[in-house]
Amino acid sequence: MKIGVLMGGISSEREISLKTGEEMVANLNKDKYEVFPIILNSKEDVIEKVREIDFALLALHGKFGEDGTIQSILQTLNIPYSGCGSLSSAICMDKDITKKVLKAENIRTANWIIVKSTEDLAEENIKELNYPLVVKPNNGGSSVATNIVFSLEEMARSVEEALKYDSEVMIEEYIKGDEITCPILNGQMLPVLAIKPKSSFFDYTSKYADGGADEFIIELKEELHKEVEAMALKCWKALKCSVYARVDMIVKEGVPYILEVNTLPGMTRNSLLPKSAAGVNISFSKLLDLIIEYSLKENRV
Predict the structure, then answer these.
(1) Is residue 279 annotated as a catalytic residue, yes or no?
(2) Which sequence spans correspond to the domains of the chain?
(3) Catalytic annotation present for 142
């Protein structure tokens, strides 16, 4: 089988995508697959570069890679691909839509609003939110342009920064607690990881720099574990996820809140999903085998 590892892309997360792709290429079983690294530099690249492959293993992040666009293109070309489908990818990439679905399903998440300019900060609904607040691009990832703010002045500066990456900005109440992540593979939750960033929160540096955060499998108390698992799987179903995803949560005084759902979580050597899978004796190479196997069973083409 000719496996094309699609990486690079046009989003602010291009460099992380390249690292994910390189790690996938290095760990794919060369006895089972013909492996082709495919670096995308523009949307126009895709049709020409994927013409000869049998399966697209997606190492893309952010816009064009994680928002349902590349998934739709591959479906049109009848090329099977890894991970969630185009609809689920598009929903989960839009944090505002994701939280609206979660709220409709009575799944706990922090209060938020969406703004499109600093002028929107004069609206009454801003006053309903309590500081500190988190400001971030609505359709961003990897904590790019994400800041915790404690005043209207800081908020305005952070909104301006986030608008460099997206046309919509989410302002969300900051919940101080213990961050955990719940990887899900084929509808089953893998071991929960605790995240202890060295900085004030799990920002870009914490995620991708060696030693930026301590991440380890954690045994939650039985009742909390049951609630966390139920919430994670409810998110998976509500957002129509498939194959694999990662549900990020924050636990405040024993109460879990959903932060976001990642449909193409990172797969670098510092990434969370491979660390979780290793906790149930699934090697990186085996994890990639399973992702390919489960993706092919989705039969989207």
Answers:
(1) no
(2) 2-82, 91-107+176-298, 112-173
(3) yes
